[in-house]
């Protein structure tokens, strides 16, 4: 399956009848990238892998019905947000009610009218796009443009569970700009805002892997999550991040530790266990940041 064209939305059509797949595919292909699946199992796989913007789902299919499949889709975090339109020969109100009750956003009877299918698909894609934009806005810190604390909480939960399942290491790092109050007091709040933006984006651009994650934790504090990264690799990367910020050479004549903007950081690498408390696992990173501040700032401390 080829990659979809950038910017184009994707629709996954799931129907056991090849002719239905072809007809529906043909009428939508002009507006969107179309993916086809001939069974519920194949549809679920493609929904997880390709994250379509919309699913058109037949109800009557052998083995697993559309009603069964939508229950699975709505229960999985990776697919629960994808809108589903039923398109079915079950053209009575009780089935329509059941489909909508199970979480479908629309219900179209077969035989269908081409123009109506196109119009409804367009409408739901537009709603999906608006929903995605709102979600993105709700997860971005407006000053720095990086993820905010709400997004961090979600990603941490996701990474934590995934690391526990795969028995892999997760590194958590807290970072804080040194003597930022003095910076604000002497250079002004607007200049402080610019520094926050620059530091946040320098840290972000210093991360290497697609799943490395940074958020603004609050004020002048940031948090970095490094999944599948052990202590050595994580420490090296964070030292590199701190150096990248120093290399900006942002003057800070009122910092007792340096004449440029520096950061202190505290990190921990852990192997999450299913029933371990998340808060307890993060605390060492906080403690290490505190230690770094106490022991002179402008440094990284790592929990043993
Ligand atoms: N410009 C600006 N300043 C902020 C923002 N959020 C928090 N701050 C400032 O960050 C400063 C944090 O001060 P402190 O918590 O005393 O920390 P600090 O001066 O960096 O001292 P250490 O952390 O011990 O090095 C305060 O002056 C806050 O007003 C922001 O969005 N913009």
From TrEMBL:
<dbReference type="GO" id="GO:0052621">
    <property type="term" value="F:diguanylate cyclase activity"/>
</dbReference>
<dbReference type="InterPro" id="IPR000160">
    <property type="entry name" value="GGDEF_dom"/>
</dbReference>
<dbReference type="Pfam" id="PF00990">
    <property type="entry name" value="GGDEF"/>
</dbReference>
<dbReference type="InterPro" id="IPR029787">
    <property type="entry name" value="Nucleotide_cyclase"/>
</dbReference>
<dbReference type="Pfam" id="PF00072">
    <property type="entry name" value="Response_reg"/>
</dbReference>
<dbReference type="InterPro" id="IPR050469">
    <property type="entry name" value="Diguanylate_Cyclase"/>
</dbReference>
<dbReference type="GO" id="GO:0005886">
    <property type="term" value="C:plasma membrane"/>
</dbReference>
<keyword id="KW-0597">Phosphoprotein</keyword>
<dbReference type="InterPro" id="IPR001789">
    <property type="entry name" value="Sig_transdc_resp-reg_receiver"/>
</dbReference>
<dbReference type="InterPro" id="IPR011006">
    <property type="entry name" value="CheY-like_superfamily"/>
</dbReference>
<feature type="domain" description="GGDEF">
    <location>
        <begin position="168"/>
        <end position="304"/>
    </location>
</feature>
<dbReference type="GO" id="GO:1902201">
    <property type="term" value="P:negative regulation of bacterial-type flagellum-dependent cell motility"/>
</dbReference>
<protein>
    <recommendedName>
        <fullName>diguanylate cyclase</fullName>
        <ecNumber>2.7.7.65</ecNumber>
    </recommendedName>
</protein>
<dbReference type="GO" id="GO:0000160">
    <property type="term" value="P:phosphorelay signal transduction system"/>
</dbReference>
<feature type="domain" description="Response regulatory">
    <location>
        <begin position="10"/>
        <end position="125"/>
    </location>
</feature>
<feature type="modified residue" description="4-aspartylphosphate">
    <location>
        <position position="58"/>
    </location>
</feature>
<dbReference type="InterPro" id="IPR043128">
    <property type="entry name" value="Rev_trsase/Diguanyl_cyclase"/>
</dbReference>
<dbReference type="GO" id="GO:0043709">
    <property type="term" value="P:cell adhesion involved in single-species biofilm formation"/>
</dbReference>
